[in-house]
Structures are given as C-alpha cells and as structure tokens.
Amino acid sequence: MESKWHEIELRVRYSETDAMQVVYHANYLNWFEIGRTEMMRNTGAPYRELEEAGILLPVIEARAFYHSPARYDDLIIIRTRLTEARVKVKFEYEIVRQSDAQLLVNGYTVHAWVNRDMKPIQLRKAAPEIYNAILGFLTEN
Fold this sequence. Notes:
The structure is a single chain. With 141 residues, the chain is α+β, with helices and mostly antiparallel strands. The chain has one domain (6-140): Hotdog Thioesterase (Thiol Ester Dehydrase, Chain A), CATH 3.10.129.10. Helix content is 29%, strand content 32%. The chain has 4 helices and 5 strands, in the order βααββββαα. The chain has helices spanning 26-43, 47-52, 123-126, 128-140; strands at residues 6-11, 59-66, 75-85, 88-97, 103-112. Strands 1-3-4-5-2 form a 5-stranded antiparallel β-sheet. Strand 4 and strand 5 form a beta hairpin. The longest helix has 18 residues, at 26-43. Keywords: Hydrolase.
C-alpha cells in the first residue's frame, strides 16, 4: 500500500551549491527530510507530536539515485510518499525541476519506530491514535 505523492516547492539557495555550481549531493538528503517532515505533518502525526509521545523515527537506510543536477535558483518540487508503515516505515522521494519536469533525483529512506531508549516498538500498540492517523492517510490517498 502506498500513499499519493505529497509535494512541496523549494528554491535552490546559493549556499546549497558547490564549486561546480550544482547542488552539493548531500543536500538532496536534506530535501528528502523536508519532504518527509511536511508529509508527516499532513498525516496528522507530525514529528513534534511523535517526539512528545516518546516515539522516534530514525533513518536506518537511505538511498539516492542522481539523474541530473539542480542549480542555483532552480525551483524544485520535492515529492514524497509513504510506501510501508508497519514495523519499518519507508518513504520514497522524487525531486524534479519545476520548469521542465526533469527528474533530478529519486530515492528512499527506511526508518524504524523506536522509543527514547532506541528500543524498537510496535506503533500500533504504543500509540494507536498515531498509528490510525497514518493508516488513515494511506487508505484515503
């Protein structure tokens, strides 16, 4: 089961580019996080509420596949969707340039539900209201 794509626009800042005048590769992972954070806010389970409830979602795997560079002042669209939401959570990403719809990067991150002691938890049991909000987001989209 996967959700629809959640989209957010971002303009490439000068500080995100390198000596080759393209976006430094690590910034794409930062943009993945921006997309993920905003998507979680839209599920009704924003990171702030998760953390206040003692639930953390650390990244345990990250992959990015580079297709074309982004450059200073490009307007990009960060697309994020949730594709797994059980013991592990998987988010998929696409970053495209708005002007020509060119795919710049795609990838994914995998996360684990853990408590403050970094011990794995079952979200369905630990926080059923949060689990149901995420499940509802998946099924309605």
